Amino acid sequence: MQLAMIGLGRMGGNIVRRLMRHGHDCVVYDRSPAAVEALAGEGATGVAGLEALVAALSPPRAVWVMLPAGDATEEAVMRLAALMQPGDTIIDGGNSFYKDDIRRAAALRERGLHYVDVGTSGGVWGLDRGYCMMIGGDRDAVARLDPIFAALAPGIGDIPRTPGRAGRDPRVEQGYVHAGPSGAGHFVKMIHNGIEYGLMQAYAEGFEILHRKGSDELPEAERFDLDVADIAEVWRRGSVVSSWLLDLTASALAADPGLDGFSGYVQDSGEGRWTIDAAIEQAVPANVLSAALFARFRSRQDDTFAEKILSAMRKGFGGHQEPGKT
Amino acid sequence: MQLAMIGLGRMGGNIVRRLMRHGHDCVVYDRSPAAVEALAGEGATGVAGLEALVAALSPPRAVWVMLPAGDATEEAVMRLAALMQPGDTIIDGGNSFYKDDIRRAAALRERGLHYVDVGTSGGVWGLDRGYCMMIGGDRDAVARLDPIFAALAPGIGDIPRTPGRAGRDPRVEQGYVHAGPSGAGHFVKMIHNGIEYGLMQAYAEGFEILHRKGSDELPEAERFDLDVADIAEVWRRGSVVSSWLLDLTASALAADPGLDGFSGYVQDSGEGRWTIDAAIEQAVPANVLSAALFARFRSRQDDTFAEKILSAMRKGFGGHQEPGKT
Amino acid sequence: MQLAMIGLGRMGGNIVRRLMRHGHDCVVYDRSPAAVEALAGEGATGVAGLEALVAALSPPRAVWVMLPAGDATEEAVMRLAALMQPGDTIIDGGNSFYKDDIRRAAALRERGLHYVDVGTSGGVWGLDRGYCMMIGGDRDAVARLDPIFAALAPGIGDIPRTPGRAGRDPRVEQGYVHAGPSGAGHFVKMIHNGIEYGLMQAYAEGFEILHRKGSDELPEAERFDLDVADIAEVWRRGSVVSSWLLDLTASALAADPGLDGFSGYVQDSGEGRWTIDAAIEQAVPANVLSAALFARFRSRQDDTFAEKILSAMRKGFGGHQEPGKT
Amino acid sequence: MQLAMIGLGRMGGNIVRRLMRHGHDCVVYDRSPAAVEALAGEGATGVAGLEALVAALSPPRAVWVMLPAGDATEEAVMRLAALMQPGDTIIDGGNSFYKDDIRRAAALRERGLHYVDVGTSGGVWGLDRGYCMMIGGDRDAVARLDPIFAALAPGIGDIPRTPGRAGRDPRVEQGYVHAGPSGAGHFVKMIHNGIEYGLMQAYAEGFEILHRKGSDELPEAERFDLDVADIAEVWRRGSVVSSWLLDLTASALAADPGLDGFSGYVQDSGEGRWTIDAAIEQAVPANVLSAALFARFRSRQDDTFAEKILSAMRKGFGGHQEPGKT
Question: What is the interface pTM, i.e. ipTM, of the complex?
Fold first, then answer.
């Protein structure tokens, strides 16, 4: 079927490529003409603006917006809404905050437009492996887009089937789920990313303990000089902690066992933060997910005012003078 | 080759079975005669005591102890050490504390005996999938036991190869690693389990937020009635959080979406605790791994003295009277 | 000077009483006529509604709103704003979210009204000890209300002076601070409460360890039967952990050493939650403050879905069947 | 009465001074002759070694050891034990691990010697304010030393009495407690320090949020330029978070509002670590106390292997390249 894509970055561009591989017809726009040209060269219909993009589609239209969450997405959705017609659908495939989805869906509904939010996981691997998608929106709008989702999803592949799923929604085993009304897709994706932070931090802490077991700060008799690259690799094979994140870790460690190519500075995105906000709204204890987020905050500073407060107190009660950082 | 097994519980029994499937010759002992008899019926040589077990083996002997960590293992190892001869090897395949391994290995070395500690992951699935093994001990003793480890390990199977491993120890891709001297095997297994706790808690917190998103404590407009079984399933397919633990979660939720068969009481074992002790010894921040452990501690109590202290303070400064638990 | 109070609960009523003790002239309103009558009997001017309240004041008027944060405060402030005249001031002494203050102050400024937000600490003890106040608003409006704040504040009393404060704002040593523009008062009070949660939880965890050191789950040789009431008392005297919260704890434990009068259910208020939101907005690691909040969330549940997820995984990989909760 | 002191550092020296102020007779030894000479000049009897020290005392002797926990204390106690006679008492006033106390007390008991462990809080302020003491040991040995403890303790002073303590041990209100048998004193002191870490971290996190509320990383409309020195001061007066640690913080901030004299590097001592070990042994959730400890661990590193693992994973799944640390 026909789909327009706005935003041809790493994610948007590859989604278009995967759709075209499955025979879909894509109209593409990006504020960078070079990005449009590149995909046009691969078979897409390039356009120079939103008006042209809407004009190039036959109703009922479907436009996928793949832009950074926040102002860029908001502006594109609202401009599109003004150009499109009742029965058309706007898909937000980015990482929007789910309450923005709820608000936008209500605004679009008044004009007879559909709004579908799609949380998309798979990163740079999605083009070949397929994308895992978590979808929110009206049942009919989601159903009409099914060929798109089916093409983007990984499909059942050779992943073992979970017993006991007979009679359940078959789309789920293909790798996409209609999670609920507008906002539900991004809500589920948000929690997905919150969990991702927690999983990553669990591995990170464990590998740091392994890495430092050889440190000369320990008594020599209790020191082990462990090969963390081999340990990551062996855990991929039959252990309880095997996972795709571990596969990536094993690859990184095989290439650079000391990870000297990294500074230790770790960014975070909105979804990790919103997950904690959601936990607080729902009064759910989220000690692990929040600790994972805070570790990233801390990683980006050389020292903190909090730590200076500690030293100031220690000097105050005990006369302790801290040494400088080593 | 020939191996004796002491302890024929879920783990020990299946290890013997897997070894026999690969053509190895097993002598077995358990304090339960029925357990011995069962494996004897499957082809093992059953014996009635440690003396008989040692007598049934040709030197250099290899005896695998698969008993609960602590007193049971300690007693078996020490009794065996008194019965065995220079050049023989005792393997502790249980979940011993690694400092006990270091101590025992030193004691056995004085008698000319080898001590090999093997951390074994794979649980009830190991019989068919194979066991991931983390091994500590002298190079020669570990090398001599290689046919045993090769039989127990999962093998390379259809798990994609990690790039960049050319020239590295080939045993690792088979699913076992010689991590270092005595104690190193159980140290790595200990951290493995510490990570496991963290991974599990990350999923658990995320699923609780999803589960409670439909709660009527939230404003109706922000409530979603999410199908957590479907969400667990879809994440298995192309998402960043896919893992074996997620596979198990998806199975459990497909069978019982509300998990009504569980009370919420969660046990912990020594390894999760020792991981935090190790982090503290090494001055490694382990916020996620410790939070995962503490969540289990809390799960086993109805209420805590700590919480009563909080209520007492709140009454003291604000006159707040807490309601009862709902 | 003249001040009107709306909301005569525990806080509002006592603030009026303390003001009258210092010779100020109070007009009071509450939706409960009995509350109005009670304070009228103590010398205040009772009125039956907001119109009457505004009419009873001479310009420039000052009205203190002491209602639950959220809808009740919002409605009272907005209704008052419609009744009052340029140059008048509305004081929000409750626990409002500071972004609401910023918004309201802007709305009132358009009508020539002043808005002053006052975070008030002191609880049931404030009537006699005085209230610690954190104030946000325009310099002039705050200055005009100085007699009110001076009367409510504890004053310098016999608390030792901090060295090095010569030349600094003298109001601070009296127990009130003009923290900044509208919203700053409640922001500082919010963080105050966030810290309060952390302090309380630190004591709570410590006392639980002391309390359970006598438990028969420990080896008898390492068990101590500690008197936590005496320990709380002794720490009040010369130790590094002495504090007002510890004083309250010592009182509660002297009266009821097992705290049997408490269920373990602990409530939380908006400020503890908003503190974490603020930390996240500012990318500040807040592991202790968030853990303190989450402990309260956990205290209010018998068991959690998260814990059931853990048990389900444990059964999945190890065949572990959890026992029921004791 | 007569008491000998071994170790004349900041703590030991001031304890001797306070005892002499109260008319007690002190024999002193330190491996630094200058330290001995200094106190001899203030009225103590200086000696040149342990033999001379024991010889200078009349039985039943009492010797207070005030040395770093670990080897130094162990050696001094064991050498003293060999020199002393049945009925004599050794006091360990340092920060020993309580299980070492239990072991030492048992060893000394076999020789007819008493062992008393005293956890001492008060830091550099103790000379004038008095020391809060937590004492473990036999009832008789502790009773015989009562004049020493009474002299060192702060006494009841002007700290308000806790209601409901009639009939309770009167020593507690003087500032010392006989907590239980050998080891109990240091156990209680250990938890005291664990709580201290938690309290300090709660303030530290709160002040960091306040400090960074003026940062230009926030939208200008939500920024406040807060004076943290004034805020610390105002909270000392009537607020729920007032404490001695806050007094110290207010002093430090009055002298150096940006705390520019501190590097952010924060040390920790054994007691904070042992508190977590104890919590784990007793299965007590200690999220706040452990987070406080881990914050210190993190403060001492520029970056961590854990953080590099996170970046490596992020690059693996999303192609994210982290920027360098700012």
Answer: 0.96
